[in-house]
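Morning, I've got a small favour to ask if you have a moment. You're getting the sequence in one-letter code plus the fold written as tokens. Thanks so much in advance, here it is:

===
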Amino acid sequence: MAGQLSFRLAPMDASVAPKGVLLSVSATHTPRQNRLLAALPAKEYELLLPNLEAVPLPVGRIIHSTGELEKYLYFPTAGIVSRYNTTENGASAEFAVTGNEGVIGIALFLGGDSTPGQAVVISEGYAYRLKAASLKNELDRNHPLMHLLLHYTLALMAQTAQSVVCNRHHSLEQRLCVWILSCQDRLASSELTMTQELIAQMLGMRRESITETAGKLQKMGLIRYSRGRIAVLDRSRLEAHACECYAVVRREYDRLLHPENAHGHASLHGECRQHLAHIGEDVTILN
């Protein structure tokens, strides 16, 4: 069935990963490679650092499933995580992608225990994660972190809303351009490693449709696609061929996560404190 996901890996558990793997992650990646952690003032960052745990993100790893209690907040430093929903008959469609610009596990600081969506790694990478209990303690005293998380959530909401519009009104050709550009923005390379089956699953389309559309983009000289590898050959023309959704979402992320907005203003910190006071008595964050 078109759009039906076939991932079968168990949710991530660092306790089953070899210690050497985690050490290699921390040796080659630092928390500051995540844009939100990079934007934290030095004092808040140093206080948070001892509670961050480095974990690998292999392709296909399910970070959280539908309705699953979220126990960690993940700060990706490399790779891409797809957020998608699945229907009762097994069909699925992606509504957002996340890389080192954001976090996975927003239910933990928005006042819920879980979300109806799922999060799966589609391009390998790394992350630093924070236990739910540690997150609660951090948010009680670390207002800049809450400010950054709320700004990121606004950007994610914009991405999700624009995805709905895009899926309803724009062609598969335009949507594929947007998807390729969005993925490339979150990688250090101009080449993506994605099978046609995976792309079809994420866009909720038939594999044959992806094959035909990718072929058109290749004939136009915009991309080169071979054996699961997509190389962007002409980014400016690819952006021109995409619908306006790509530019709209990118502007929102740049606006909300711009370094000038990193520390926020006193009024925004006041809003964060009010938010914490509002949810503090109603939310139980699991250990």
Remarks:
- The first strand starts at residue 53 and ends at 57.
- The chain has a mean pLDDT of 83.
- DSSP finds twelve helices and eight strands in the chain.
